Amino acid sequence: MEQDDPDSGRYVKRDTTILRREHVPDETKRTPTLWLSLIPVTVLIGSLFYSIVILEGSGHIPLILGSIIAAIIAGTSLGISWPDIQKGLTGGIVTALPAILILIVVGLLIGVWIASGVVPVMVIYGLKILAPGYFLVAACLICALISLATGSSWSTAATVGLAMMGVGQALGIPAGMTAGAVISGAYFGDKMSPLSDTTNLAPAVAGTQLFTHIRHMVYTTVPALIIALIIFTIIGIVRPVSGSVDTPEYLLMLSTINETFNLTPWLLLAPAAVLFLVWKKTPALPALVVGVFVGAVLLLIFQRDGGAGSAPVLSRLLDSLYTGYESHTGVAMVDELLTRGGLSSMLDTIALIIVALSFGGIMESSGMLGRLAAAVLKLARSTGTLITVTIFSCIGMNVLASDQFLAIIVPGRMYRGAFLKRGLHPKNLSRALEDSATLTSPLIPWNTCGAYMAGVLGVSCFTYLPFAFLNLLSPLISIFYGFTGITIEKIEDDPDSIVGITAEEMASSEG
Length: 511
What we know:
Layout (H helix, E strand, L loop, with lengths): L10 E4 L2 E5 L12 H21 L5 H17 L5 H13 L2 H20 L1 H10 L7 H16 L2 H18 L4 H18 L4 H10 L3 H29 L9 H13 L8 H11 L4 H19 L10 H10 L9 H7 L8 H19 L2 H10 L5 H19 L2 H18 L4 H15 L7 H10 L3 H4 L4 H16 L18 H8 L1
Antiparallel strand pairs: 1-2
Helix pairs in contact: 1-2, 1-17, 2-16, 3-16, 4-9, 4-13, 4-14, 5-6, 5-11, 6-7, 6-8, 6-10, 7-8, 7-15, 7-21, 8-10, 9-19, 9-20, 10-20, 10-23, 12-13, 16-19, 17-19, 18-19, 18-20, 18-23, 19-20, 19-24, 20-23
């Protein structure tokens, strides 16, 4: 019989048979200090600010730089071996693989739903409910509908939102009010749509399922929308408007979409199928795959004639799935709205998620993320204060890092363990992340979302901020629920919807 030194972490052998692999923690590994843990975060935030705000670039390279700095500190100052660093790096990515698969299918879904006419018919029905007496209410609801259908607040604001700005100007409504209604609706849809990248990212980081996350957000987002609509209704009563919504831009958008697609109510079968599966609690991936299949069938039935010079219908179907739908109507607003989707459109977002979670994985496995979290969590002595700390951390990341993805990923990784230790279901964390990170991003002028919205709508962030009621109310409602316990669920209330949580993390919650 022979046996290796158990302290080496090598295989233990008896009679040449491998019985088990023992792992003993490396005694050379050191505990990080708070100041040492802040170095990678400081480098990351500084480089993100320079890249995104100054150079107007992306966050990919700063995240890679931050990961390199974190790995160097972990290896040199903390005595962590490269295999352990690499394990942390890849472990962070593994947690997002379900979300990445969903994002791939979402890209397919968006492309085929536009090409089949599903999204265009929803746009048409939404635009037709406009009327001067309740313009702000209608603008908010229309943008919510379009954003739900497309999963993109940016596309909604740049197209339908821009049209609403023109209509509001024709009716004599202050630009800040109209922009507030547009952003409230656009971010409701962005936050609640299974096609949205942030809506997929938040549950992946927190450790729960997509549709579980969306259903849990209903409790904060729908009340915020209802209150916003009530306020917009009161504004409409207090300051009545006159005039017509039939502006040239509005009429041109309607006529162009009608001429480009064969529109019929039957096209609504695609979203109806997905909503039915959601209601039946079908997992996100198969439900969205069904949506892709139904959209493809509708395209083959109703959009066979693509017009003179168009490619064969099967070729258009395959193109819409991979590269997305490309609109060539010559009308800028319509082309901007409908040119999107496809597998390739998701690759940039997937790459950002991978490099961001690589950074988070190294920070977590080295103990630096836990050290930062411990410093902040000294303020969190109850469920209410924990949710409050999470929300303000997300807002702080939006301010400092100027990116909503980082505002979801970094606090999400920092506080996941704290939620589990309190026995709180991960969907409470994912909801708090979206209530703050997603919704406050357009309210900060130097954030990518705030800069984009201000540029597209032609109104400064501080002008529309007082009227973005949904974005302001949702974080407050989330904090209120945290202190009162309303809709706050424990792990044992819904254990089957927990995904991506390691055995060690679950053990900490049981302890």
